[in-house]
Structure formats: C-alpha cells, structure tokens
Amino acid sequence: MRFAAYLGLRFLFLIPQIVLISFITFVLVRMLPGNPARMSLGPLAPESAVEALREKWLLDRPIFEQYGAWLEKAFTGDLGESWVNNTYVLDDLIQRIPVTIEIIVLALIMVFLFLVPLAIITAARTKNRIVRFFQNITFGYGMLAGALPDFLLGLVLIFIFFTHAGILPGPEGRLGILDFESPFVTGSVLIDSLIAGDFDNFWSGAWHLIMPVFTLAFVYGAPIFKMLRSQMEGALQADYTIYAEAVGIKPRTVFLRAARVASGPTIVITGVVVMFLLGGAVLVETVFNLTGLGQYAVQSIVTADYAPLQGFVSFAAVFTMLVYLAVDLVQFAMDPRIKAVGSR
C-alpha cells in the first residue's frame, strides 16, 4: 500500500511537469531565428503565399493559442508534420527512438559489465599487486574520461580503427552500405535481425555499433565508476564494517551490506548519467551517421523545423521523468528511511 501511494503521488506530479516543460520548449523553439514558412516555400515565393502558409500553421496566432492547438493534437498522438521531410513527427520518432535507446542501453550494459566490477575491485582494502595495477589504470581512465569530449573520442576511434587500421567499419550507419535492414519490429537492428533470423545483419549491426557504444560508455561511465568506488571505499572503512568483521560476521555478508550502502548514491548518479547519455547520443549519432534522435534534433534546429524539435524535446522530457521515477522507486524499495517518511 505504501509503494502504491508513493507511485500514485509521483505520477500526480509527473503530468504537470511534462506539460510545463513542453510549454517552455514550445516558446523557446519559436524564438529560433528564421521563418519556417519562408524556408519551406523558398526565397522566391511571393509574400502572400508565405502569409497563407503561416496562417495554415497558426504561426500568426498568439503563442498560447498555438500551444493550445498543439497540446490538443498531442493528446491524440498527432505531434505535427515536418515541413523538411514531409513526414509525421510521430512516425519519425517511432523509427528513430529505438536507434538511440539501443546505443544507450548497450553503453549502460558495457558500463555495468566492465566499470562496475573494476570499481569494486579497486575499492578493496587489501592492496595487493592486482588491486594496485587496476587502481593505476582506472586513475588514468578517470582523469581522461572527465576531460575528453564524446564527439572527439568518436573521431579519434574512426581515425585509428577505420582509417588506419581498417579493423572496424567506418561511419556508415547501423549497417554496411550494401546491407538491407531486417523488417521493422522493435527498431533495434540487433533484435530485429535475430527475430528475422538474419545473422549476417546481426553481426554487421554489432560490428557497426562497437565504436559508438564504446564512446558513450567510456565518456559517460566515469561518473558511475567514481561514485561506486568512493562509496564502496567509505562503506568498507566505516565503523559498522569494522565492527561486523570484529564480531565474526562472514566476509561475504559484510561485503554485500557494504555494496547495499554504496548502491544508493550509485543508482542516483546512474539516473543522471542516462540523461547525459541521451544528450551525448545527439553528437555521437552525428559522428557515426546513425539515424537516431540525435540527427533528427540537429537537422530540426538547423532548418527551424518546429514540429520535430518539439517532438524530440517532449520525448526527452518524458524519458527523463520516467528515468527519475524509476530511480526513486528503486530507492524507495531499497531504503527503509524513505519508506518511513512515506508512511507518515
């Protein structure tokens, strides 16, 4: 009952937050330089045609009236139409969101497979040669990842592994130039290839995703690594851990309790990192020519294409709120102090 009440309260605040963010975005997008009607019709179009198109798109109306019309359509699933691509924004998002989600999820999987174990190993109080070796490596990694832009790392990887070594494919997209995508089911090139039984496409897609996924994991995994290691070091050196060891509690139990203490702040920073991953994917997708939300957003900004940009930011807002909600729910389930506050 406490969990259901907490979840209902969070959803109650979720809706007004999304509406407020969508309105602020709506206003800011329309402050961008350029006239979409003029850009759509071209510089030689008569002014009367431009004004007629502005009226059709409601650009001559007050901003609140424009937003009200957009919000009414958005509730029915109509996010508008791109004047550049002549496509519906909702259809574009359905095609592009899985591309971005795929590289974000794969980057997080890489972080938890490699950086999380490294953080735990280097936090150990026993300073043997292996621990010292990994500590030296991870110290350099932490310094480098904190100062290296994601797009620069992507370009360096392309220069080394494609241009010079020829080991990995270049920035061709999710598949090779001569490859045909499997039928759309989920939008993930790996999952759709497996569903279709096309293992050639699966390996081609996996090969093309190595560099963009590594770029995101390397740059944005550093905060998770640093937070987990510092929290584990603090928990393993705390008085309650020393007391637990003194009274003879099993080392495995002591370690698991320390890991539980360290997991709370790590989960919070992971939620923040996911948001940075969404932003970092914008540049990484452009560098590696991935047809995801990143390219979509950049193209929309350059061409003053209001509807796609509004759709991208609205999705980002919903995605952000849901990630933060998931983080809060995990903390609620793990931290008895939050349960005690929620029960009052």
Task: Tell me what the structure shows.
- The protein is an all-alpha fold and 344 residues long.
- It has 2 domains: 2-89, no CATH class; 95-177 and 210-302, MetI-like (MetI-like fold, Orthogonal Bundle).
- It is 75% helix and 1% strand.
- It is built from 15 helices and 2 strands.
- A two-stranded antiparallel ribbon has the order 1-2.
- The model is unreliable at 340-344 (pLDDT under 50).
Task: Give the topology.
Elements: H1 2-29, H2 36-41, H3 47-56, H4 63-74, E1 81-82, E2 87-88, H5 89-122, H6 129-145, H7 150-164, H8 189-196, H9 199-220, H10 222-236, H11 239-246, H12 251-288, H13 293-302, H14 306-334, H15 336-342
Antiparallel strand pairs: 1-2
Helix pairs in contact: 1-14, 5-6, 5-9, 5-10, 5-12, 5-14, 7-9, 7-12, 8-9, 9-12, 10-12, 12-13, 12-14, 13-14, 14-15
Summarize the structure.
The protein is mostly helical.
Which structural traits does this protein have?
344 residues; 15 helices; two-stranded antiparallel ribbon; 2 domains; mainly alpha
What is the H/E order? HHHHEEHHHHHHHHHHH
> In what range is the share of β-strand residues?
under 5%
Give the uncertain stretches in residue-range form. 340-344
- Helix percent reads over 70%
Instruction: Specify the number of helices.
Output: 15
In spatial order, strands of the major sheet run: 1-2
Mean pLDDT comes to: 82
In CATH's first tier, which class of the largest domain applies?
Mainly Alpha
Q: End-to-end distance, in Å? A: 13 Å
Estimated structural class: mainly alpha
Major pleated sheet: 2 strands, antiparallel
- Fourth CATH level, the homologous superfamily of the largest domain: MetI-like
Number of strands: 2
Specify the CATH architecture of the largest domain.
Orthogonal Bundle
Query: How many structural domains in the coordinates?
Result: 2
Shape: globular
CATH fold topology of the largest domain: MetI-like fold
Measured on Cα atoms, how large is the radius of gyration?
24 Å
